[in-house]
Amino acid sequence: MKTITIAILMLFSVSVFAQTNTELKKHFEAYYKQMKKQGDKQGVINAMTHLDILEPSVARKDTLAYIYLSEGQYMQALNTIGVEKNATDSDMNVEVKALALKNLNQIEMALEHFEELYKRDPNVYLAYELADMKIQTKDLAGARLNIDYAMANVTDDMKRAFYEKQQPYETSMKAALTYLKGLLTFTENKDANLDAALKLMNDALAIDSNFNLAKISREALEAQKAQRAQQAAAGNKN
C-alpha cells in the first residue's frame, strides 16, 4: 500500500511539474513577444534565456547569441555558443563567432570562422575581411589571394562601412579594396614599395575623395617619403 501511495505521489508530482513547465513556457513566449514589440532587447534576451532553460534548442541559442552580438555584448555571445569550430554549426552560429572574436581582437581565432564562412559562401565582403585580418597576422600571400578574388568580383554599387571616425561612413568597395591593396603592397616591402603603395592610396581617393582612411594612410606614406628624402639629403651632405 505504501509503495502504491508513493507511486501515485510521484506521478502527481510529474504531472504538476509538466503543467507548471508548460505554463512557464507560455508565459515566457508571451513575454518574448511583448518585449520584441516594445523593442526591449534586454527583455528579449531574458525571455529567450528562460525559454532555452525550459526547452533547450540549438536554434534558440544561436539566435540569442546573435542578439548579444548585435548589442555589442561579445563575451556573452561567445559564452552562449562557445568558440569551437564545428562542422554542424549553422551559418548564423559561425558568423557570430567570427564577428565576436574579431571585435574582441582575437584575430587568429576569428580568421578560422571567417574562413569557414568564406568556404560556404565566397563573396567580396568576406574576401575583404579575410584580407584585412591576414595583413594583420602577416599572411601576406593569403591576403593577396583574397584581394585578387574581391577585385575580380566587385561591382560599382558595393559599399563598405568604416568606423575610425566619430561618425561612421561608407565608401565604395572598389576604393576600399584599392586602399587595402596599397596597405598590403607597403607591408610586403616597406622600403621598395612606398611609391607603389602611395599610388594605390591616390587611386582609392580618385574613386572616393572623401575616403578618410585612405587620406590618413596617404598622409602617413607622404610623411615617410619626405623623411627619407631628408635623410638622403643629410647623408649626401656628409
Describe the model:
There is one protein chain. With 238 residues, the chain is mainly α. The chain has helices at residues 2-38, 41-54, 58-70, 74-81, 91-103, 107-120, 124-136, 140-153, 173-188, 194-207, 212-237, and strands spanning 159-162, 169-172. It has a two-stranded antiparallel ribbon. A hairpin with a 6-residue loop joins strand 1 and strand 2 (169-172). Helix 7 runs antiparallel to helix 8 and helix 7 runs parallel beside helix 9. It is elongated. The termini are far apart.
List keywords for this structure.
mainly alpha; 3% strand; 238 residues
Secondary structure: elements and pairs:
Layout: H1 2-38, H2 41-54, H3 58-70, H4 74-81, H5 91-103, H6 107-120, H7 124-136, H8 140-153, E1 159-162, E2 169-172, H9 173-188, H10 194-207, H11 212-237
Helix pairs in contact: 1-2, 2-3, 3-4, 3-5, 4-5, 5-6, 6-7, 7-8, 7-9, 8-9, 9-10, 10-11
Gross morphology: elongated
| Biggest sheet, spatial arrangement of strands | 1-2
CA-based gyration radius: 27 Å
What is the terminal-to-terminal distance?
111 Å
Low-confidence stretches: 7-18
Largest sheet: 2 strands, antiparallel
H and E string: HHHHHHHHEEHHH
| Helix content estimate | over 70%
Strand proportion: under 5%
Mean pLDDT across residues: 89
Helix/strand/pairing category? mainly alpha
Number of strands: 2
How many alpha or pi helices? 11
Oligomer status: single chain
